[in-house]
């Protein structure tokens, strides 16, 4: 991983899970900036593998995909804001509608998860970090110092996504975005391996009626209270 922090004697790991559009990425990024922690967007890694699968026409060919992913080099730059796939910046490509609809199918393959989880755990050894995704509190960092589950109603999450898409001039409707989010939620919560679930020791934060700043302050408050 580029821009690595040096390993320190005292490292703090904050793990966040939650469904699509819950606001966890924005929150995690801001908390990382405030605390000077490394930021790990785990979904970006599954998305990068999906970009790779689409480009090589192997999204449906699981054995080939498993074989190729071992030779795929995924790295971050700019403290997690840029993702590199075999040294190419794919930060924009990973957000395409095609990737959105395929990523949950790629992410459910156990061998792919195994490779990516190992990579994430290695990143976790490099210094204090805040990591977010679907299985960070349960599988990747089960011993994290702080665990949060960030959620919001489906309608709220779809509304936020729609605003983002409209800002990028993508022509779509609330109904279509909501349907996409529901389909991804279903796949992410019902898959056999590492489904999205709330860890018993995670603090649940509902962001439906809260601003990003309120959630960031809440997390910072939790972390600082244990200083
Ligand atoms: O967080 P984001 O929406 O970018 O994640 C994209 C997809 O990657 C999720 O819908 C899920 O299928 C997969 N994912 C996962 N485990 C993670 C993070 C993301 O399976 N830790």
Structure description:
This protein has 227 residues and is of the alpha/beta class. It has one domain: P-loop containing nucleotide triphosphate hydrolases (Rossmann fold, 3-Layer(aba) Sandwich). It is built from nine helices and eight strands. It has helices spanning 24-35, 42-55, 62-69, 97-107, 110-124, 136-140, 154-167, 174-190, 212-225, and strands spanning 13-17, 38-41, 74-77, 82-85, 88-89, 129-133, 146-151, 203-206. Strands 2-6-1-7-8 form a five-stranded parallel β-sheet, sandwiched between helices. Helix 1 packs across helix 9 (212-225) and helix 4 (97-107) packs parallel to helix 8. The two termini are 28 Å apart. Mean pLDDT is 93; it is low at 1-7. Bound molecules: cytidine-5'-monophosphate. Cytidine-5'-monophosphate binds at residues 20, 42-43, 46-47, 103-104, 107, 133-136, 184, 188.
